[in-house]
Amino acid sequence: MYDAESLLKHATKSLITLVAESTLWASPEVYKRLLKQSGSGVWYPNVRRCKKGDGEKKGCADNGDRLDDNTYANYAIKKALVGTNRKLIAGFSVCHIWPKTCYDKKCHTNIANLVLMPQSLSSLSDFHFEIQLALQFHSYELYRWYPDNEKRPAKPKLYPSKWLNPLPFTPEVESALNRRKL
To answer: DSSP state, 63?
Structure first.
């Protein structure tokens, strides 16, 4: 007998393991330094994704906020991972760990809310609930952060025991942090 639910549970566990072993995370030290520098984990203050459906356009100021398409989030996580040489990272997409937080300037470029996933897997962070839960809990484990309007994440049932280690905090990353414009 074939049971679809059993097959899906097994496949989901494999997908979550694949995500855990292939996502790139910033060193928790980056997040700590951002908190020390500006009181938040945001790399680029006052930046959020534009709401194209509401007629907003990239770059236009809205009450002092810079509106983005995801470029700033992409730059933020890559600088947090390797400094200014973004060419060291290829084939990845920036993903927001918490749904809809890209529209919030306190979350859009918050390093604790960003991860790089292989491009072929990146849509899972938007559309696969179990993977979202695993990413949220792992982020909480690393940075002890979650959005103000959310509950503290709990460890999900399908949580991998092994994750790719965050990239090291290097002199290049420190230099990129020190050159941030606040």
So the answer is: T
Q: By three-state DSSP, how is residue 48 classified?
A: strand
Spatial contact of 122 and 97, defined as CB atoms under 8 Å apart: no
Q: For the segment 146-161, what is each residue's pLDDT rounded down to a tens digit?
A: 999 999 999 999 899 9
The bridge status of strand 47-49 relative to strand 61-62 is unpaired
Cβ distance 34 to 41 under 8 Å?
A: yes
CB proximity list for 22: less than 8 A, separation 6 or greater: 117, 118, 121, 164
pTM of the model: 0.91
Alpha helix segments (H runs only) across 40-128: 71-82, 124-127
Angle at alpha carbon of residue 115, lines to 9 and 161, rounded to 5° = 45
Strand partners, 24: 116
On whether the CB atoms of residues 74 and 122 are closer than 8 A, the answer is no
For tokens 């494999």, what's the residue?
Answer: 14
In this structure, are strands 47-49 and 65-68 parallel, antiparallel, or unpaired?
A: parallel
Q: Any residues with CB less than 8 A from the CB of 62 and at least 6 apart, and which?
A: 56
